[in-house]
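Recall from the previous chapter that SMILES is a line notation for molecules. Here it describes magnesium ion.
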Amino acid sequence: MYRFLIFDLDETLYPRQAGLMQEIGVRINRYLIENLRLPPEQANELRKRYYNQHGTALRGLVVERPDVDPEDYLHFVHDIPLANYLGPNPLLAQMLRSISLPKVIFTNATIEHAQNVLNVLGVADQFADIIDVRRVAYVSKPNAGAYEQLLNILQVRGDECILVEDSVRNLLPGKALGMTTILVDSEDCAEVDYCVHDILSVKPVVAALLRQPPDRLTS
Ligand SMILES: [Mg+2]
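With both inputs in hand, we obtain:
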């Protein structure tokens, strides 16, 4: 039995073309340039290395740079006027409302950023909870520890969750814990359970899953 429908936030609830994450990326580079006093090229290289080695720039800073305050970083990179990038999405609100399963947000960002995005999209009232990067002790996706803490917070097993994400990399650790995985904005289902063209197409997949729970091994 499924108990939670878990959504990533950025570029899952709104399309990549919105350009918001690109702007956050620009601000991540700016933070590294200004606070670590790196030339732009080195900042870019460091960001890439953190992404490959630690999953996110934040995780890289937390692990390798105890002199950097993660809260200062998180505030800086998300300090963006969201209304320039996003607007209300009544169809998304309607879609979420039509799914009876409790919905939660699982994001590498902060709860403030998540609440701001949900408010601009007009879907804040559709989510039972927001698990942000603070609540998993700054262990970002795709590190396995983030997903283990998520399950612990929700008091569920992986196979009781459906995880919706725009990133294959962030779905795989969930799948390894037994979650049913839905990749948004992709036609490449090779490594995940389902892939859909856009967020509204999640609805029929979830509806079918709720009608037909997956086979379980019985002891
Ligand atoms: Mg995302």
